[in-house]
Amino acid sequence: MNPHQLTRRQALYGLGATLGSVAFSSLINSKAEAATSQESPLAPKKPMLHAKAKNVIMLFMEGGPGHMDTFDPKPELTKRHKQVSKLTGGLEKGFKFFVGSPFKFQQAGDNGIWMCDQWKHLADPYVANELCNYRGCQAESLNHPEALYHMNTGSRLGGDPALGAWATYGLGTENQNLPGYVVMTELALPQGGPGNWSNGFLPPYYQGTRLRPEGSPILDLATPSFKTREHQRRALDELAALNSSYQHSLGVEDKRLLARMESYELAFRMQAEVPDVIDLQQETEATHEMYGLDQPDTQSFGRQCLMARRLVEKGVRFVQIFSGGWDSHDYLERGHTSRIKSVDKPIAGLIRDLKQRGLLEDTLVIWTGEFGRTPDNNKRGGVYSLGRGHNNQAMTMMMAGGGVRPGIVGATDELGRSAVETVHPIRDLHVTLLHLLGLDDNKLTYFNGGRFKQLSQFGGEIISDLIA
């Protein structure tokens, strides 16, 4: 090796001339070799506890849907429409007034799930009977990026591993030819960008793989015409030999190098399997219609929901889909009507499809935003702005399958300002989701920065009312 390429660690090892130092270096090298040859870090692992769910599909409504405009009706708020509000909190200042929901509400399914009249397909009893509406969760931040990071990673600061990263770290994935954690977005990324699906301080194997919304979902997915699979295989083998030789020379394990070597192999395997998974033309016309692929308003989100079903069916552990545009500070009726219409049929189709295929029992579907909305708003330019501010004291989320209990859990006060029953912070929600997957938050840890870290940051409580 070129002496100018030696690291300080290698140089110190080279200075040792005793038998002990030689033995120590040999031991470290043997561990590095074992790490290089061991099975994939994403190989399936046994859950720590009895698991009710094997996979997760998380539908993230970025911007914060209004709970009193979707699944948590507030008749008293409607009575006070445009009356002066003296409520404190939130980001809005100055003159504030109450905003009644522009929508009427209906009850759906055997459990009487409340939902606004814009939900046409989710209200079908076959779907609604599976729904669990949780109203007791409270966030911390009122700012979108921080709140997004908190809901997705357990930390408001960013840089920590995402939910999907923790899930694949604890359980691996059932298909070694596909990523364990897949993310789908619109053309514009959610606020905070890829930090919402980062591996954080976990090894790079566990970061989310984003599928592009237009064109090829993954760049360079097709093998170049001038290369054969055999040619690629030989090139990868040669590259692996060079990397292994370099890894051996380091004398210590380099997780980044090992992860890069594994990513090359995964990419090679994905070129063979991904084209088949993303080929939605294999689905029947009836399935396309069920997800809304035949309608402009629902086509985009419908394709992603259908893709999510195909991915979990193929063994992907965690799938996340982001839908933006829910931040309605004004034009509430127009904004939420459009947003609900774009996701209603695809979500109902996803739950129906999973149920019909026997996949819903062990697939946890979650619909959520980063926080809720205020029951009041402030005037803008002297005009009543019919919208809502950010509210971290009350929100709503919908779940289905994966061991959750259908029905309504928790409650907010009569105006929707704050959660008042089955009240829990986000960390308790995260602990509960891990529990449904058969993972113990207190045992699912990773040593970083001088201490063992976990998703909940410092522990949490299982929300037993959510579990069937």
UniProtKB/TrEMBL annotation:
SUPFAM superfamilies: Alkaline phosphatase-like
InterPro entries per the UniProt record, alphabetical: Alkaline_phosphatase_core_sf, DUF1501, TAT_signal
One Pfam family named in its UniProt record: DUF1501
Gene3D superfamilies from the UniProt entry: Alkaline Phosphatase, subunit A
Protein name: DUF1501 domain-containing protein
Record organism: Bremerella alba
The organism's taxonomic lineage, starting at the top: Bacteria, Pseudomonadati, Planctomycetota, Planctomycetia, Pirellulales
